[in-house]
């Protein structure tokens, strides 16, 4: 199977041209998701195709698409399936998001090859050792922060990481780091953005008497907690809930939103469009 992800200026006949190219080589469409943003006249698509019976090699098929892609002024990406995405997980102290990722990856829900777990604290080291995953402890306190991010960047490069997951990694990333790995970093924010930013959003939510709390999975950009949103999850709050209850509900939201966001990204179901993420759910 082959996955094609594409975006281009909208115009008549795009779907027909793509479908015709696939059919002309003996490919078979398995799934064709598309979206047209009429406000910006942009077209987005994600296509799954069976290429077992195509009349050329997969490499020639992908190379041959260039003529059509360029004629559409498109940006596109092919990925053979099945596959696993090389992934590093960044953590600090809390473990619920890390455990959720590891469990789903082990059960095949997330197509991840976890190359390492990176922590600025050692609280998650035992989990990594239990799973047989390398753990990198990076000192980041005080004036060690700048050097720590350089070490993390080198680890991501050395391990050829395609996706970095901030699983409650409680550090603000420098602009250069965000830009170097743009589109490859996913964060779970412990709040239903845009609201209640900071270290203790559930206490803020309690003080404000909110009726819904949630969590937001988003791509990381140099704008703090303002990257394109991939997924969000909410829970209803009762007047009887304490701050501890909100934290419990919030952890559930974080695990669910992060897992879905990772899945959508890993299966090439997201396309970043400026400040927005187009998501073709499965």
Automatic annotation (TrEMBL):
Hydrolase among keywords: yes
Q: In which pathway does it act?
A: Purine metabolism; IMP biosynthesis via de novo pathway; formate from 10-formyl-5,6,7,8-tetrahydrofolate: step 1/1
Report the leader peptide range: none
Query: What EC number(s) are associated with this protein in UniProt?
Result: 3.5.1.10
Which enzyme type, at the first EC level?
A: hydrolase
Reaction(s) this enzyme catalyzes, per UniProt: (6R)-10-formyltetrahydrofolate + H2O = (6S)-5,6,7,8-tetrahydrofolate + formate + H(+)
Q: Keywords, A to Z? A: Hydrolase, One-carbon metabolism, Purine biosynthesis
Q: Which SUPFAM superfamilies match?
A: ACT-like, Formyltransferase
Q: Where is the ACT domain?
A: 3-82
Give the active-site positions: 225
Asked if the Swiss-Prot or TrEMBL record annotates the protein with the keyword Phosphoprotein, the reply is: no
The record's Pfam families line, in alphabetical order, gives:
ACT, Formyl_trans_N
Classification via InterPro entries? ACT-like_dom_sf, ACT_dom, Formyl_transf_N, Formyl_transf_N_sf, PurU, PurU_ACT
Q: Which HAMAP family match?
A: PurU
Q: Which protein family is it in?
A: Belongs to the PurU family.
Q: What is this protein called?
A: Formyltetrahydrofolate deformylase
The root-end lineage is: Bacteria, Pseudomonadati, Verrucomicrobiota, Verrucomicrobiia, Verrucomicrobiales
Name of the encoding gene: purU
């Amino acid at each position: 199977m082959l996955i094609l992800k594409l975006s281009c200026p909208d115009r008549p006949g795009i779907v027909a041209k793509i479908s015709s190219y696939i059919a002309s080589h003996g490919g078979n469409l398995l799934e064709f998701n598309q979206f047209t943003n009429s406000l910006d006249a942009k077209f987005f698509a994600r296509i799954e195709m069976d290429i077992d019976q195509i009349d050329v090699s997969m490499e020639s098929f992908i190379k041959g698409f260039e003529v059509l892609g360029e004629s559409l002024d498109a940006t596109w990406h092919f990925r053979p399936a099945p596959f696993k995405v090389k992934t590093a997980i960044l953590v600090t102290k809390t473990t619920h998001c890390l455990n959720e990722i590891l469990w789903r990856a082990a059960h095949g829900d997330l197509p991840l090859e976890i190359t390492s777990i990176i922590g600025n604290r050692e609280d998650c080291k035992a989990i990594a050792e239990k799973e047989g995953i390398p753990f990198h402890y990076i000192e980041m306190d005080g004036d060690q922060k700048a050097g720590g991010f350089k070490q993390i960047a080198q680890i991501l490069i050395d391990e050829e990481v395609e996706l970095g997951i901030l699983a409650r990694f409680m550090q603000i990333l420098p602009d250069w780091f965000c830009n170097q790995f743009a589109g490859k970093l996913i964060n779970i924010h412990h709040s239903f953005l845009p609201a209640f930013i900071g270290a203790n959003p559930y206490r803020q939510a309690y003080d404000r008497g909110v009726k819904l709390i949630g969590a937001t999975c988003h791509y990381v950009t140099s704008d703090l907690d303002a990257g394109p949103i991939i997924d969000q999850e909410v829970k209803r709050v009762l007047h009887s809930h304490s701050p501890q209850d909100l934290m419990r509900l919030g952890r559930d939201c974080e695990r669910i939103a992060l897992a879905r966001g990772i899945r959508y990204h890993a299966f090439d179901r997201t396309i970043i469009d400026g400040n927005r993420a187009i998501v073709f759910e499965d």
